[in-house]
Design goal:
159 residues; Pnp Oxidase, Chain A; alpha+beta; single chain
Length: 159
């Protein structure tokens, strides 16, 4: 699989998964995860989140930029590893602001406390189980009866 094919595969897998878990290294040195809504659905290796300037996510990323972004769907799991940075005063913030964001953050895109968090993914790992939940259940039963492992699609992609 080429890097372009891999990026397209990851894009297809995370499309429609609105909320991701962003894991950062806290200012105290431990790992900290929090759910954030992905703002840009056209994945090309970049992921954007809108956060508050005074949030722990901004403090953590400012201190240590290495992050993980995890997506979980019905039968899909994607783990992105990369580097995050805060983009203050970015015109892209206004472009990405929507009613979903408005429900969680106050003041709109012009509020100086709202900033864009940009994650540039360097690699991705994915796991994709075959079929819908009924198919997954049938595969699980077949695995127990035959003793053969359920096969799915998985891979690692450099971005």
């Amino acid at each position: 699989m080429t890097d372009n094919d891999g990026a397209a595969k990851v894009s297809d897998l995370i499309k429609g998964i609105r909320v991701a878990m962003l894991t950062t290294t806290s200012t105290e040195g431990g790992l900290r995860s929090r759910p954030l809504a992905t703002q840009d659905v056209d994945f090309d290796g970049d992921v954007y989140f809108i956060v508050e300037r005074d949030s722990s996510a901004v403090a953590d990323v400012t201190n240590h930029g290495a992050v993980n972004v995890a997506y979980v769907g019905d039968s899909t799991w994607v783990s992105l590893s990369g580097t995050a940075r805060v983009l203050p005063d970015s015109p892209k913030l206004a472009e990405l602001w929507n009613t979903f964001t408005d429900a969680w953050l106050h003041g709109g895109p012009d509020d100086p406390n709202n900033v864009l968090l940009h994650v540039q993914a360097e690699s991705a790992e994915y796991w994709d189980a075959p079929g819908a939940k009924v198919v997954q259940l049938a595969n699980l039963v077949r695995s127990k009866v035959t003793g053969k492992r359920v096969e799915g699609d998985s891979g690692t992609v450099s971005l």
